[in-house]
């Protein structure tokens, strides 16, 4: 500062004052520098805030822009961004900008476990401003592996937070001399970290949008290309969207269906509204049902409909999603299958009716053939010479063979139709084996075969139908003897945990394994040349396996051609449960083998009270593969709660008894009349029901022999019922005759099995029942029970 000054002598002088403003200038420069720095930082932050790169969601591009801007603003050599990996065990460098080379790089990583102090500081502090990084407690762990390697003296690190979670760090690195970081620079580093957070959020948002778009595109592709019809329906049942498949199913365009009511095209059923209410209330997740839809051309379309609920963000039901699959062809196939099933059932019924009819038609002449030949055999009408006896015996044996064939066919048909009923009981294995061995022993001895039975000591009993088990064993043994020219046949019984096995082995001709698949087919003999050498129909094994299956077991085979065969019958400990059926208590009366009529016949006697059944007699015979003579004095498989001792009304005397024969079949009538007259009875025969009551009153017979298949105005069933309804005829002895299941007419719907017909007849009022063909021994046996 200058100032004029006049001294006393009058001379003027100029004074200048000087002051040291160095500090002031330094302060001004520092302020200016700080202001410029803040202005520069502010400008950078504004530019980043306006950057479209950060908003586009490209994280790599955004980080490159951020690191470059930060390096230029803070004037450091390196700026890098490090992010935690998925398990938060390390940080990885995703972008590093070097101002010297002006290049970006990435790929380095730092394990969190190796630098605990540094990572703890990141989590606890706003920023790490390490002026002397190699000696700072927070960063000195990084000195040797990282700082010294790159010549880094000072670092300014700011943690990156996202959603309250530490996700990484932004590093500002100064190389060379130690640098003092200012507060403004620390704040700027924090702002840079915030921009990194924004970049990450934008990237995640973009990824979510892209995923959503991809999902929507995929859904639309599925929606449009699905072969299943898909419809989106609002809560008012209006169609919001529909795919091409559903348009094709209904025959409408998308424009025609949108905004229309979905319920206008589906046929509703009673209860559908309740189902929809359950779906809306959350009681069920989806509805699945088969419904008809109305096509545009008026035809019906069957569809499998699956309906689920789509809820809004607040959880309220917003749409129904209907998945509709066209099942019209399937329904048509089901209808065709039902029709085929009905046709098959009709065919099966026709087959059964045919077999029943054939049984009747064959048994009727057989009755005459076998009955009359028996009369001749017993020389009731005169003596025969040796040649005549040979012829008669041939006639009778041929009838036996034909009867065996009929029985096997009917048995097989009954099993295939599922009408065979088993009467299961506990059977003694030793008695079973003794019976079947004794039955086939004569045949084995005729061929000079060794017949052996080996029974496991633990195999004391088995569960099965006694008649059918014997039939199966006899079929297997008979076949083994038939096809074994020399050697032996063995029956071996073993007890298993699950059941019991009966194994029949032989040293016969054997079977080619390639023929096993035909072995159990009906009417099948493996080599047609065998038909001439070995008689048989090929039904035995087929029937045996089916009966085994009915017991819950099976029949298996092992064989070597030319060396022999082994057939094994397995019966389980617990056969399948059978439906309960009422069984009459039976006493099995046996006949001597010389008296056997080689047929199965059931004779049941009743007391004069029709509600009480007393005695029953079963006869079985052996014809090749059919049933053998059954001898049981007490049938344990039969039970009866109603049992009385028969007291015949007419006891046998020397007086000739009168029998009224009601039979419309001429040959059968002749046989029965001649047989009865030959053994000393007086017989009157009528062929219809018209003369029955007159003859009954005039003749007053001691016994009526009634054919249930009687033709005319009144069937034999009706005639029997009428007799028992008359109080004066309660003591009249009535023995009925039947031959096949068709004997039961439509007015009496009963069990059509032979046992069912027998039981029906006894319930109506018959004293006993005979089944055609009828043998002389059976007739005599019945008459002896009543007349002595």
TrEMBL record:
Domain PAC stretches: 287-339
Entry GO MF terms: ATP binding; histidine phosphotransfer kinase activity; phosphorelay sensor kinase activity
Record-linked SMART domains: GAF (SM00065), HATPase_c (SM00387), HisKA (SM00388), PAC (SM00086), PAS (SM00091), REC (SM00448)
Domain Response regulatory per the UniProt entry, residue ranges: 658-787
Domain PAS: 215-257
Subcellular location field: Membrane
Keywords from the named record: ATP-binding, Cell cycle, Kinase, Membrane, Nucleotide-binding, Phosphoprotein, Transferase, Two-component regulatory system
Domain of life: Bacteria
Protein's GO biological process: regulation of DNA-templated transcription
Main location: membrane
CDD domains: HATPase_EvgS-ArcB-TorS-like, HisKA, PAS
EC number(s) given by UniProt: 2.7.13.3
Region (Disordered): 623-648
NCBIfam families named in the record: sensory_box (TIGR00229)
Family the entry assigns: In the N-terminal section; belongs to the phytochrome family.
Name of the protein: Circadian input-output histidine kinase CikA
Organism: Fischerella muscicola CCMEE 5323
């Amino acid at each position: 500062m200058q100032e004029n000054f006049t001294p006393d002598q009058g001379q003027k002088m100029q004074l200048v004052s000087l002051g040291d403003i160095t500090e002031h200038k330094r302060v001004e420069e520092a302020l200016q520098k700080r202001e410029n720095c803040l202005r520069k930082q502010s400008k950078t932050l504004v530019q980043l805030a306006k950057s479209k790169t950060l908003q586009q969601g490209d994280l790599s591009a955004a980080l490159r822009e951020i690191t470059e801007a930060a390096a230029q603003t803070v004037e450091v050599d390196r700026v890098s961004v490090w992010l935690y990996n998925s398990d938060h065990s390390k940080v990885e460098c995703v972008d590093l900008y070097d101002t010297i080379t002006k290049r970006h790089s990435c790929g380095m990583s730092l394990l969190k476990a190796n630098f605990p102090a540094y990572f703890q500081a990141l989590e606890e502090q706003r920023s790490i401003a390490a002026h002397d990084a190699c000696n700072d407690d927070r960063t000195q762990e990084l000195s040797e592996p990282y700082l010294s390697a790159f010549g880094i003296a000072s670092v300014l690190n700011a943690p990156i937070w996202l959603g309250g979670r530490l996700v990484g760090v932004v590093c500002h690195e100064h190389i060379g001399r130690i640098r003092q970081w200012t507060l403004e620079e620390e704040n700027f580093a924090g702002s840079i970290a915030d921009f990194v957070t924004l970049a990450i959020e934008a990237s995640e948002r973009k990824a979510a949008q892209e995923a959503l778009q991809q999902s929507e595109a995929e859904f639309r592709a599925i929606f449009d290309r699905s072969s299943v019809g898909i419809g989106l329906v609002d809560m008012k049942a209006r169609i919001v969207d529909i795919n091409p498949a559903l348009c094709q199913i209904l025959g409408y365009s998308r424009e025609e269906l949108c905004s229309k009511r979905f319920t206008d095209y589906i046929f509703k059923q009673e209860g559908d509204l309740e189902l929809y209410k359950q779906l809306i209330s959350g009681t069920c997740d989806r509805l699945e049902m088969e419904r008809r839809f109305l096509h545009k051309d008026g035809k019906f379309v069957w569809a499998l409909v699956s309906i689920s609920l789509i809820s809004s963000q607040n959880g309220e039901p917003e749409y129904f999603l209907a998945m509709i699959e066209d099942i019209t062809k399937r329904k048509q196939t089901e209808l065709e299958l039902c029709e085929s099933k009905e046709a098959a059932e009709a065919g099966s019924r026709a087959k059964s009716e045919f077999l029943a009819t054939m049984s009747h038609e064959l048994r009727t002449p057989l009755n005459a053939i076998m009955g009359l030949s028996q009369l001749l055999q017993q020389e009731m009408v005169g003596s025969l010479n040796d040649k005549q006896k040979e012829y008669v015996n041939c006639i009778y044996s041929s009838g036996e063979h034909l009867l065996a064939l009929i029985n096997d066919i009917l048995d097989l048909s009954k099993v295939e139709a599922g009408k065979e009923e088993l009467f299961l009981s506990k059977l003694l294995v030793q008695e079973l084996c003794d019976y079947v061995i004794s039955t086939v022993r004569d045949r084995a001895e005729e061929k000079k075969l060794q017949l052996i039975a080996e029974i496991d000591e633990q195999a004391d009993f088995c569960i099965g139908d006694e008649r059918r088990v014997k039939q199966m064993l006899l079929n297997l043994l008979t076949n083994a003897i038939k096809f074994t020219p020399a050697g032996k046949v063995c029956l071996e019984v073993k007890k298993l945990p699950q059941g019991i096995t009966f194994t029949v082995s032989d040293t016969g001709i054997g079977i080619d394994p390639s023929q096993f698949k035909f072995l159990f087919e009906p009417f099948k003999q493996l080599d047609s040349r065998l038909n001439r050498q070995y008689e048989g129909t090929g039904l035995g094994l087929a029937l045996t396996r089916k009966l085994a299956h009915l017991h819950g077991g099976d029949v298996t085979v092992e064989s070597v051609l030319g060396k022999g065969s082994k057939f094994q019958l397995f019966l389980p400990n617990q056969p399948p449960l059978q439906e309960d059926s009422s069984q009459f208590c039976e006493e099995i009366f046996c006949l001597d083998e010389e008296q056997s009529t080689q047929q199965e016949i059931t004779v049941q006697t009743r007391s004069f009270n029709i509600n009480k059944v007393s005695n029953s007699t079963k006869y079985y015979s052996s014809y090749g593969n059919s049933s053998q003579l059954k001898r049981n004095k007490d049938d344990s498989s039969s039970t009866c709660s109603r049992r009385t001792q028969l007291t015949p009304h007419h006891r046998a005397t020397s007086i000739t008894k009168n029998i009224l024969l009601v039979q419309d079949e001429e040959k059968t009538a002749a046989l029965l009349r001649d047989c009865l007259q030959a053994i000393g009875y007086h017989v009157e025969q009528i062929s219809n029901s018209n003369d029955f009551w007159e003859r009954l009153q005039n003749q007053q017979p001691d016994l009526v022999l009634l054919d249930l298949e009687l033709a005319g105005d009144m069937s034999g069933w009706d005639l029997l019922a009428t007799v028992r309804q008359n109080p004066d005829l309660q003591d009249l002895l009535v023995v009925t005759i039947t031959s096949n299941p068709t004997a039961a007419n439509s007015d009496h719907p009963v069990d059509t099995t032979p046992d069912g017909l027998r039981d029906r007849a006894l319930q109506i009022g018959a004293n006993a029942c005979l089944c055609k063909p009828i043998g002389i021994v059976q007739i005599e046996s019945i008459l002896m029970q009543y007349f002595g």
